[in-house]
Specification:
The chain has about 290 residues and is mainly α. It is built from 15 helices and no strands. The protein is rod-shaped and about 165 Å long. The mean pLDDT is about 90.
Length: about 290
């Protein structure tokens, strides 16, 4: 081979390796870093670029919080999206991004929850969930969020019995932990309902006992029985419904009237006896006076 052929047929330089391309990002301008993160290169290179992004539109787009990040509109690869969300979480933990402002639009961007779930401060996720006012959105998050932690906390925040019953069916074959949380909440609501029903039955039965007692004539154990019924009525764990409460109040008043009527009768009889005793004493005095004359 001639010297000229060796010069003109020199082998091209091999392409830079992935570690070399990653290292080159250290000195790359911000627009190059952003373009790399948004590009279609290897996920590892894009993720390395993401770790160098600040709170910019490309980062939020890759995290699913802005317009489509892929040039062709294709879904962002899962590892890339997860890296973008983790980077946003780092910026929140560092105070570069205000957590409250970041979570302000959580109902329109549920992916916000996936970000704050990665924050070191667990309160950010609770605060974000607390901003959701639409129960339907909360229910969808409990079933469909990609973060198990988010699904579990969303399930814990749901209180509506009808919604819990519906979510129980949806979560049965999706997330065992969420299913267990919802099942426990349903069981607790059922227990509360049963307690309320038992309390209502107890109050109704006790009210009926008072009403029956109010129709009885006075007897030697009338007052003692009323005292026991009154103590039970006052000791009810929860107050009964308004109509039962009113019936019980009326029955107690009638029972009181029975005792008052009995007391009045005793007083009348006592007065009669006293009058008779007085009259007898007067007759005795008159007789004694007559004998002395």
């Amino acid at each position: 081979m001639t010297p000229f052929s060796r010069i003109f047929n020199k082998a091209p330089s091999p392409p830079a390796s992935l570690p070399e391309r990653v290292a080159s990002l250290e000195a790359a301008p911000a627009d190059v870093v952003a373009a790399t993160a948004l590009g279609s290169d290897e996920d590892e290179l894009r993720i390395a670029a993401i770790h160098r992004l600040g709170d910019e539109v490309p980062l939020r787009a890759l995290a699913g919080l802005a317009a489509a990040a892929e040039p062709d509109g294709a879904p962002v690869p899962a590892p890339v999206r997860q890296a973008a969300q983790a980077r946003l979480a780092e910026l929140i933990d560092a105070g570069t991004i205000d957590a409250a402002a970041f979570c302000a639009d959580v109902e329109r961007h549920p992916q916000t929850l996936s970000v704050v779930a990665l924050c070191q401060d667990a309160d950010h996720l609770r605060e974000a969930l607390g901003r959701i006012t639409d129960p339907a959105v909360l229910g969808q998050i409990a079933v469909d969020s990609p973060s198990s932690r988010v699904r579990q906390l969303a399930a814990t925040a749901i209180e509506d019995p009808a919604q819990l019953a519906e979510l129980l069916k949806q979560a049965r074959h999706k997330d065992k932990t969420v299913y267990r949380i919802i099942q426990q909440k349903c069981d607790a609501l059922t227990a509360v309902q049963r307690q309320a029903e038992d309390a209502a039955r107890e109050a109704s039965a006790l009210c009926a006992s008072l009403e029956r007692h109010a129709t009885k004539p006075f007897d030697p154990i009338y007052a003692a029985t009323l005292e026991v019924l009154t103590q039970r009525w006052q000791a009810l764990a929860t107050r009964p419904e308004a109509d039962v409460e009113q019936r019980g109040h009326v029955a107690l008043e009638r029972c009181g009237e029975v005792i008052a009527a009995h007391d009045r009768e005793l007083a009348r009889l006592a007065a009669e006896r006293a009058a008779e005793e007085h009259a007898r004493a007067e007759r005795e005095r008159a007789r004694a006076a007559e004998q002395q004359r």
